[in-house]
Amino acid sequence: MPVLKDKELRIVGFLCNWCSYGGADTAGVARATQPTDLRIIRVPCTGRVDPLFVLKALFGGADGVLVSGCHPRDCHYSVGNYYARRRLEVIKRFLPILGIDDRRFEYTWVSASEGQRWQEVVTDFTARIHKLGQAPRLADASPMLKIAELALSSLHALGSNLSAPLDELKAAIKAKLPDLECVIGWQKGYDGAHAVPLFMKTPEDVDKLIWGPLNVMNPAVYLPDFKGRKIGIVVKGCDSRSVVELLQEKLINREDVTIFSLPCEGTLDMGRVNEKLGRYTKIDKVNFDEASVYITADGKEHRFCITEYAQGKCYGCVTPGAVLADVVFGKPVPVSPGKFTPPELAMLDSMSLEERMGFWKAQMDRCIRCYACRNACPMCVCRDYCISDSRNPHWLDQEATPENKLFFQTIHAVHLAGRCTGCGECQRACPVGIPILALRQHIARTVSELFDEYKSGMNQNAVPPLLTYATEEKNIHERDL
What we know:
Elements: E1 11-16, H1 20-29, E2 38-43, H2 51-59, E3 64-69, H3 80-94, E4 105-109, H4 115-132, H5 166-176, E5 182-188, E6 195-200, H6 203-206, E7 231-235, H7 237-248, E8 257-261, H8 270-277, E9 283-288, E10 292-297, E11 300-305, H9 306-309, H10 312-315, E12 327-328, H11 343-349, H12 353-366, H13 372-376, H14 402-415, H15 425-429, H16 437-450
Parallel strand pairs: 1-2, 1-3, 3-4, 5-7, 7-8, 8-12
Antiparallel strand pairs: 5-6, 9-10, 10-11
């Protein structure tokens, strides 16, 4: 029988073999009274506890998850718990955006000699979970569809890039082209209202290059496929951050990549553009002025002001110019000081935990599991070995449940922690318009808060914070139950 009254709850514990498991054993040998709700999984080190273990347990029906290991500065493997401390703190702060109470997860430190402390830890945590009660299940949540209110204020002026010196850029690309295998950019797509990738190998190809608010795609996604070959790329500011992040992780070589850039004044949210255009037979023409794009479809003209129809990421963009570039033309775009919360993230911030779970239930019911978000992500480079397809280990099955779909999205977000550059390709590529970028934005905000305002893709010599550690953390305190 459990020490605490009422029925047992499902609590999973990941315990370090060298310390906390020994502490639990010490408490058992001393016949210390303990709750029986905890199901212990012994691991070699807390550094071996992937944050996905926590998510898997909570998505699988656990009411609480406890991770316990050696005290910092006393790890059997020297630094395992230093890495774990960063990862586990990030995942703890990530849980609420999914609608999961972060009190249902805790990590702490117990040595092998601290049998009494282990008894206190497991008793206190079990009491906390009993007070919270059985964890709500995504399958039982009431679906709630809600659309974010677009914030029309921006940190820099938005426009159509009509005055960009495109001819100068083309001339520079033609001059560099003989030394490069190709240069990646954008060209007119199947109609004038859509752009597609352009791989420039001849001067005639360069003449097809376009620049403006229709250049929504991030060409950096193709760079890892050209590793070891001389390649050029035309980038917007946000695209250049992806290039920098690829350089940080040594997925491309700096000496092989020539970066061309013009300042960006924003790109159109093509989902909303297509929604306003409705069903049409053909695009007759596309015109621009300084502030807008005019699209004529089946003889009817539609005006799209960039300020009103820009992608959500553009309003808070602090890098309209390239972070790193070899050839740059155009005048820098001034950026106003201040912090900006993206519209979708602001919407989720305003919700209760119950509402967030209902929101994701409704969104995942719409997901068709096409993995376009994964394929469009420039930082998702392990597609041939993707966790969504792997059967060893078997993290996901093919059942089309909201739990499976949301678990995949959380896996993607966690794998991008400290790496996501906020390019928005995941959300832009989604055929049903699920605001999945908000998950990446939340975890990026968490990383920034914890690790000295760190922003990925800003410095090619920086080490992503979850790939390193500090013996004394400024914003992470010792976890004591």
